[in-house]
């Protein structure tokens, strides 16, 4: 799933390609992905792309004041095409294409969604704040006013909730998902289960540093990369996320995981939990 750094880089890449171009046609193939009906999708046709920005993990194409907002979710992606096929795409259960945007010079972009879990969401709105997920976003962790004090206030407000869930909740802090929350906690040498409000003093400073460095470095690495290169870039720099069973790059211990109904987290016991593996319901079931 693309998170803040990838969406930031996508926005930058698309801005360079789309700036000042006119949209001539929008073909929709996955009708279920479109969450709004007014303005209609056709309102984008004939507009100029003025800007491409990011709000949390949402991508925002400003098309002469009408906004096409995309939430790529788990398996959504944007593919740039120097030349789009002239035949309109047919809606098909086999195709990954959700929407195709054709530009005035024959180039364009495909928004795709792989896999069976259809969670890609598209919105056509007059104001990005009309998208419920954007209106309720927490502060962006890369802005100057996201200080140690601000993070401290957020954590106090969240009380005894586990830090892993707090970091990835979009209404609390914008843009961090399952992958970067694992990476931030590994960099901070902190248990994913630590209660938010218990983090203060030196630990709070450490967590703030880890958050800004992890997300900031990922943005710096991703900037300037084309959409097609971003996934590989993200994967090759992860220390624990998605690396169950492999050695921790810091201490060499084996990266472990805890699985939940629809996700899993990865961590290093030596770096983060005093050497003790966390209980994992699936693992204990297997051992019974
Ligand atoms: Zn380690």
Q: Describe it for me?
A:
It catalyses: Hydrolysis of DNA containing ring-opened 7-methylguanine residues, releasing 2,6-diamino-4-hydroxy-5-(N-methyl)formamidopyrimidine. This is DNA-formamidopyrimidine glycosylase family protein. Its cofactor is Zn(2+). Keywords: DNA damage, DNA repair, DNA-binding, Glycosidase, Hydrolase, Lyase, Metal-binding, Multifunctional enzyme, Zinc, Zinc-finger. Belongs to the FPG family. The structure is a single chain. It is elongated, with a radius of gyration of 20 Å. The protein is 31% helix and 20% strand. It is built from 9 helices and 10 strands. The mean pLDDT is 93. The protein is an alpha+beta fold and 288 residues long. The strands form 3 sheets. It has a 4-stranded antiparallel sheet, with helices on one face. A 4-stranded antiparallel sheet has the order 2-3-4-8, with helices on one face. The longest helix has 22 residues. Bound molecules: zinc ion. The site of zinc ion has 7 residues, from helix 8.
Give the structural class: alpha+beta
Distance between the termini: 33 Å
Q: What would you report as the Rg, rounded to the nearest angstrom?
A: 20 Å
Give, in order, the helices and strands: HEEEEEEEEHHHHHHEEHH
Rounded mean pLDDT is 93
Shape: elongated
InterPro entries: FPG_cat (IPR012319), FPG_N (IPR035937), H2TH_FPG (IPR015886), Ribosomal_uS13-like_H2TH (IPR010979), Znf_DNA_glyclase/AP_lyase (IPR000214), Znf_FPG/IleRS (IPR010663)
Organism: Nocardioides oceani
Domain FPG-type: 239-273
Catalytic activity: Hydrolysis of DNA containing ring-opened 7-methylguanine residues, releasing 2,6-diamino-4-hydroxy-5-(N-methyl)formamidopyrimidine
């Amino acid at each position: 799933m693309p998170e803040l750094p990838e969406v930031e880089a996508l926005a930058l890449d698309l801005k360079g390609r789309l700036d000042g171009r006119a949209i001539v046609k929008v073909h929709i193939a996955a009708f279920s992905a479109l969450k709004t009906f007014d303005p209609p999708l056709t309102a984008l046709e004939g507009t100029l792309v003025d800007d491409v920005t990011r709000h949390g993990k949402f991508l925002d194409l400003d098309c002469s004041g009408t906004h096409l907002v995309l939430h790529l979710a788990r398996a959504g992606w944007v593919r740039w095409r120097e030349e789009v096929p002239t035949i309109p795409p047919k809606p098909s259960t086999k195709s990954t294409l959700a929407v195709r945007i054709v530009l005035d010079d024959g180039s364009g972009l495909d928004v795709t969604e792989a896999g069976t879990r259809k969670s890609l969401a598209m919105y056509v709105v007059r104001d990005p704040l009309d998208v419920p997920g954007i209106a309720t976003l927490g502060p962006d962790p890369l802005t100057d006013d996201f200080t140690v004090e601000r993070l401290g206030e957020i954590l106090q407000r969240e009380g005894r909730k586990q830090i892993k869930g707090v970091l990835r909740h979009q209404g609390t802090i914008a843009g961090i998902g399952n992958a970067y929350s694992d990476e931030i906690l590994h960099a901070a040498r902190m248990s994913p289960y630590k209660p938010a409000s218990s983090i203060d003093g030196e630990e709070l400073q450490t967590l703030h540093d880890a958050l800004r460095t992890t997300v900031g470095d990922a943005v710096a690495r991703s900037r300037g990369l084309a959409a097609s290169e971003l996934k590989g870039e993200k994967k090759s720099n992860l220390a624990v996320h998605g690396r169950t069973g492999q050695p921790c790059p810091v201490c060499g211990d084996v990266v472990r995981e805890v699985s939940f109904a629809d996700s899993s987290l990865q961590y290093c016991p030596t770096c983060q939990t005093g050497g003790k593996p966390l209980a994992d319901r699936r693992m204990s079931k297997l051992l019974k």
